[in-house]
Predict the structure.
Amino acid sequence: MGDLKLVRKFEVGVGFFNRYEKLVKDVVLPYQEKALNDQIEGAEKSHCIENFRMAAKKIKTGACDGEFYGMVFQDSDVAKWLEGAAYSLAQNPDAELEKRCDDIIELIGEAQQKDGYLNTYFTVKEPDKRWTNLQEAHELYCAGHMIEAAVAYAECTGKSRLLEIMCGMADHIYKHFIEEGAEGYPGHPEIELALMRLFRCTKEERYKELAMHFINMRGVDSEYFVKEKEKRNWTVWGADPGDKEYAQNGAPVREQDKAVGHAVRAVYLYTGMADAAMETGDTTLTEVCRTLWNNITQRRMYVTGAIGSAYEGEAFTKDYHLPNDTAYAETCAAIGLIFFSNKMLYLERKGKYADVMERALYNCVLAGMQLDGTKFFYVNPLEVLPGISGEAQTHKHALPVRPKWFACACCPPNVARLLSSIAEYAWHVIPGALFSNLFVGGTLDLSDSFGGKVTLETAYPYDNKIRYHFAPEQETMYVPLAIRIPAWSRNTKITLNGREVRCEIKDGYAYLHGNYSAKDVVTVELDLSVRRVYTSNKVSANTGRVAIQRGPLIYCIEGVDNENDILSVSLKKDGEITVSEYLPDKLCGIQELYAEGYRETVSDELYSFDAPAEEACRVTLVPYYTWGNRGLNQMRVWIPEEA
Amino acid sequence: MGDLKLVRKFEVGVGFFNRYEKLVKDVVLPYQEKALNDQIEGAEKSHCIENFRMAAKKIKTGACDGEFYGMVFQDSDVAKWLEGAAYSLAQNPDAELEKRCDDIIELIGEAQQKDGYLNTYFTVKEPDKRWTNLQEAHELYCAGHMIEAAVAYAECTGKSRLLEIMCGMADHIYKHFIEEGAEGYPGHPEIELALMRLFRCTKEERYKELAMHFINMRGVDSEYFVKEKEKRNWTVWGADPGDKEYAQNGAPVREQDKAVGHAVRAVYLYTGMADAAMETGDTTLTEVCRTLWNNITQRRMYVTGAIGSAYEGEAFTKDYHLPNDTAYAETCAAIGLIFFSNKMLYLERKGKYADVMERALYNCVLAGMQLDGTKFFYVNPLEVLPGISGEAQTHKHALPVRPKWFACACCPPNVARLLSSIAEYAWHVIPGALFSNLFVGGTLDLSDSFGGKVTLETAYPYDNKIRYHFAPEQETMYVPLAIRIPAWSRNTKITLNGREVRCEIKDGYAYLHGNYSAKDVVTVELDLSVRRVYTSNKVSANTGRVAIQRGPLIYCIEGVDNENDILSVSLKKDGEITVSEYLPDKLCGIQELYAEGYRETVSDELYSFDAPAEEACRVTLVPYYTWGNRGLNQMRVWIPEEA
């Protein structure tokens, strides 16, 4: 199966993601590097690197100046940044950046204890409390992220120093939990998916065993965190160890059938489970993953691919409960849903998994970052009203503009590592097939597998044409190409050199087989007609409302385009919606939509016996991912529809 | 001006409130008496009376067995119950009940300390901490409620024992805060309005002075609670003393212009302010009260008269923020809004104040109690969805069925005391005028003022006719009658013995003057046409939705009447809505409404590109105050409207 090596063999070409690739390289990674070093004025302090310096000094000298600062999981910000930098280096060699990464890795090595243990919080602040608070203290979580960084850095740069460090930590964990039989499982899952990556990278069975151990132990003793709390005499936040929904430990994972609790924890866990199911052929686990994925995507997911309906616990709530304005909808959770869906797609070749990856990517995840790459949303609501959003007691979390950084800075580097490894999701190269899941323009080096290169050329999502070009090493190359046909595309046409191709279409993929020469072009023409989206009438918040989608993009209305008042605007049922030409200078290049609609006369009067007067108007919609880039401003995705 | 004496002179007649009068007397008061004595199986323990017994024993013997149990303000439940019982006794003499009340009052007297101090929490549990935690500890709040009970009991039964006890406590408070100059003001306002009542009952200027003191000091030192917390070494809940919105102390009250914070605290404070403004002629205070009342009713009030949009802080949030399903909308807060509006109506004779009293009374307050008087809602949402309401993290407070009692039992006795003193709000007898504000059937004894009796006869709110009969002591009686014309009544006809009367209509009141004999009947015919209510388009939650009102009653749809699915139901714009005949056996007697509407085909699919199919249907609506009386069930007030 395709692994991270792929990244090194994909060159993002001209097109939509090219801008993001450059942004990550030129702005996001340097900006985040500064943030980790506390060099951004007016932003929340990170202290990440400094924590490692202190831990290193303490290990060297037995003591350090200053105090650990930040969240108990602060180390993971460095890990995610390193992972993003690794992906970027694979595509854009940069000796200076690589040198700085190497220096950080050296520092990380110095912060590692002799027995392999690595965690600056415990090393600096609580050396005697290792492994006593799995519920809250994120030791396994931080280890997981650093393992991911290690695998990525090794595969992208060929340098194995961080991998050695993290194999040391993984061995330490193995010893503690397997050999010495320590009880428990992580409060915040992540290590499971990381260990699966480490296993695939190193072929070391022990790491798979350890991943399976944490998956299998979870929820078997559902009182574990309660007992753990009774034993220890310290706490990070005083979190309730008995909240078994929050931590997905109310039952063994194989008996779980609803996605519950902290959304990021949930999807990280499920990602590890799906990966383990794939590696082990465990059909029970596969079935559980299917059930949980269905529960999320068919009952608990926003139309933007966001998940987590409640601020309280940053959590899933109940089926069909999807409030728009108070949504938590964390950027990291949408990213986790992409991870989970990607693994499911490896488990079974169904386009619906890629459809969800695309939904989350083009909408929630991209909205998580300012278009200029320097500000970030943690929370991605589907309706924002200045005066209420970010201000009312119930909306403190739902900020109407992106801040520069966060005290809890999990989301920004998560966006960076996802965008810089986008090819991992766009393509799956498996024995006997090349799957084109997401239409990211660029060139894929398949010399190992199919004897040549494939270039995808497109202006998608703003153009409907996706062209596959071939550069065989011999005269031709045989490529068994599986192209996703998105569920939203009603009429899709596939041509070879202009002539329509008949091919098998199964579970959302068109399967083409051909010996292609350098002159051949396979073209997919998707149907980018504007679509109206309706929610199940079981979702109270969206009664009588419609969302507008074009291609993978969910659109929204913002005040700035609509007379600074979107609450009085509705869309005409079956009204015409026209698509603007491509506007290269607006919001980094978009196509707007113009819909026939109505505008009510605005009334300050709270209650009235008179229906508000209304007149026809033109409603302007912009892609959701671009919202909040033009100042404080109303925004709404689900718009009332009127006959 | 009319004071509590009135209650003794009004006999609730046949009609809508007659049932409630009997219910309070026969069920609610006895039930609550049992609850206070911990005799209700399966209900939350109260321990109220037991707390007084322990305090009495401790005062007598220096020690007591057992421990104080319940909220720090548990005493106030006894006070509110006693006040309700007093009102009931005024109308329905009941020697046994009066004896039990007298016994409780004796017990209260025994629980009073020699210096006049009365509070079982502090006497039993924290004797050394009196007056050290005004922010949280509710001493002044409990004193205020017991003062109200004392005034009511004296005026309704002529017995002054409780009044003496509470004058002792009021004098103690006066000494502490005025003579000894202690700093501070109550965390939970209530004493202000109570002291105004005590002043009017006793004519003792000191009590008015003390009320004005607390009003005037509030927010002058807005850091008072912060400083207080720094000084003390104990806490009740660890509440944030710096939350100045919560406690309405961010600025002196005369500089406040938005209703903020804990909604009950706010309206209790404003009630005291309005009462003080009336007694003192303080025009600045009057203007502030006007501004705050307008802010509530024009920006922050639900259509049911409920207030408090957020569970967090049980609080007001922001203008036009009125979520239906997560509303706090506490029963006590709606009752407080009635208190405040009633005082505003004394300040200025405008029908809008009575309109709001009526809105809160017939909708939120009545909904706060099961129709059989034995279960209560604390929280009164405008949309309830079993599976989410009461269950989702965001909806734990919004229960879908009424519980028997509460650990914090402020609402049930508050409903009882309001309903049993309803005449206080229905009528205002002021020099030279009799104001008929609410149309409660019954007989008013006006021998002191207008030389006879006036009887209001009506089946309102289910009949549009309100008849005033007269029983002069002489041949005729001169009655300057001011009858409220509700804002919802488009066409109102007033007749004297069948002939239309021309009269001045000003600010929502029709002013009639006449010498009436026993044969005369003044009849008001209100327009009970069904009205559609629309919210300002600034209220996001109600976009595209309509509420249905008939007379004072807001209607709702419940699942039980509508195929157990209300989320797929919409009302036809301008569709016909018919009114059923009076159904005496349904929900204790109601008129249903039948509206032309549409029902969508229910879809489980979360998102779809197809608009749901729909067909015409008949939608059944019932009065909001009756909802939740037929088991677990969906409910919605704001219903989508479609052309």
DSSP finds 17 helices and 23 strands in chain A. The CA atoms of residues 349 and 524 of chain A lie 19 Å apart.
